[in-house]
Amino acid sequence: MSLLELDDVKVHFPVRKGVLFNRTVGHVYAVDGVSLKVEAGQTYGLVGESGCGKTTLGRGVLRLVDITDGEVVFDGTDLAKLPEEEMRRYRRRLQMVFQDPLGSLNPRQNIESILSEGMAAHGIGKDQDERRERIKEILAKVGLPTNALSRYPHEFSGGQRQRIGIARALVLEPDVIICDEPVSALDVSVQAQVINLLEELQESMGLTYLVIAHDLAVVRHISDVIGVMYLGSLVEEAPSDALYAGPKHPYTKALMSAVPVPDPEVEDRRERILLQGDLPSPANPPAGCRFHTRCPWAQDRCAAERPVLTDVGDGHKVACHFAAEIEAGTLELTRPTGIEAVTETKAVAAEGPDADKVAIPAQSSGDQPAEKKAEKQEQDSAEADALAKADALAKADAPVEADAPAKAEAPAGADEAAEADALAKTDDVPPADDADAGKADADDADAPESDASGAESAKTG
Q: Is the model's pLDDT at 410 over the cut of 50?
């Protein structure tokens, strides 16, 4: 018999309406008929997109939320039917590592108080000194120093806080630990440390894990068996290697196609399945197969009949009416997967540059002929050169200190007066030699062009 077995577990939350008469108008079907088995010493990975009911299922196993229907059999005992007091005693053997390590630790308690609280509640240790020694042993196993006992949660990093959460579960010597997104809030290097720590503790202490995550790479690394959830239901279950090598449910195929491959050549060649639409509301799930509203191979039967999780061989279970036909390639697509759209986009990008080159100039030139556009560009360039020469001449022959106030006080349209002053100053300076005389002649030749540019600038202003 399996250590933990779930049989048609349902967790429904009522939707209430009204102030005086608080009546139930519907339900949120967070978990709706999940069945699975977890063997002793095994790691069971539960994956699925956000909102599919993974965390609610884990909390339902611990009775942190009420179970609407179904059985949660742990070591031969149905936890769903236990009174609250008896369930408290069983929680010593069932512990949970929460997703947010800081939110799950009391900020007003130091680490020794947090870890010894559960031990005192379950009667572990004769006194505080014995509990302290036990806590020090657990801290050493999770890689934390003994001086951490007197510190508070905010004094630790995210990875250290997650280690404290693992230590809090280990001090009670549990048989099963439910890890709810244990590394999602950590960076990649710390993720690897925590995952390796969980594996080492499993080997040394014989632990059983139910790992809830949405990171498929993490789940593949740590899990022996993987279950895929969609909208409160289990759609596929298989050994880790078999599931990644050959997913059979359309939703699992779409999930696996979203995992990036580090090899660029393989990444370019592999099939990418893009699902149409959004995840339906769990308050109003579709009839029949929950996935038929987004499935690329959906048929009429899918909308009328809900498929059952069926073993197709070698422990591979799938809830799909047409899994065999899809695997064999005999079932045609009824909804685009996005591959055709990507291919069409690439074709347009390959054929369209010439058309784009013709359209863009017509819009930017205001539908003007090409000759007028070229003439306008030459005129703008000549005006810019004339203005640049005039500015250079004024800076070279006039002091900077005298020009600065004049420029500050001059109005926006006084370019002609400034150029006339600059030319007058140039004429007053006698040439020192032939080179200076040549320079003056060149300045006289440039003056009409500068006057013309000033007039043009005034018109433009």
A: no
